[in-house]
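Write out the bound-state structure for norvaline.
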Amino acid sequence: MKHFLKETDFSNSEITEIFSLAQNFKQKRNRHTPPTLAGQSWALLFYKRSTRTRVSFEVGISELGGNVITLERDRLQLSRNESMADTAKVLSRYLHGLIIRANDHEVVETFAREGTIPVINALTDFLHPCQIYSDVFSMAEKWNENSSLLESVKGKKIAFLGDCSDNMANSWILAGKLFDLEISFAGPKAFAPGKKIDQLIKENGYTNAYTFTEDPEEAVKNADMIYTDVWVSMGKEDEADLRKKEMLPYQVTMDLLKNAKPESLFMHCLPAHAGEEVTQEVLDSTNSIIFDQAENRLHVQKAILSVISEACRSN
Ligand code: CP
Ligand code: NVA
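---
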């Protein structure tokens, strides 16, 4: 069964296919979309809030001809101690695929293992692979002049500031190896990339996957793209005061951007908290492509759904 739980779950040829389909879906939106999911029912099972992921998947599935239902964990028997294994088995009898946003990464792994339908990770505390594929696609779109989409991102320097231990940071580490990017982190030492991602990159045989510094200017120097994420991820609200204090030196400002390449991009997965991890001026600047990123979630996820459903058909 084909799942998308982490960035490395697609082969290079599948990634090429996803990017090319996404480009096609974007160019032809509102004209013809093949009804790849016709006759299928997919569900979104969310343990946490969402705006972009939920809406872009709902719209994407319906544009591909599928039926979509959204389930909130608290309204399922899961929240009254029905096991994940039983829930996965039952949902597999009704649905053709499941898209899950959860806290523990083990939740998406358990559903994938116990069920018999494809599972897509719509964010866990560990990784956010749909966001990263859309982000890399968004950079490629901007830089793609004469080369292929994937070629155009090779060797680019990405500077990630703030909470370098969160799901987006982990996903950038995997993307760095997958798409041949240089990943340079800056943040407080207590928020450096953690043991779990280091273990995963070791298992994949990745070396020199990233650099980490406490100096924001050093990380941003000559960068092609500067990325940040909220300082207080969902589930970390109890640590809000400490995080905001420690991460303040890593706020992305116009001054900091001067250390990057002149045409550098600014990116953020959103939601953004202007005045915390980034200033409003940067969000509004010509460097910023935050809304292209948000839009591309739709096109890239339609491509992901198409490649997964094709892989399941040929199994
Ligand atoms: N970037 C992202 O995943 O946004 P949502 O939390 O709104 O889905
Ligand atoms: N790191 C953020 C990403 C939100 C899309 C969070 O987990 O809340």
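---
The longest strand covers residues 41-46.
The two ends are 8 Å apart (CA to CA).
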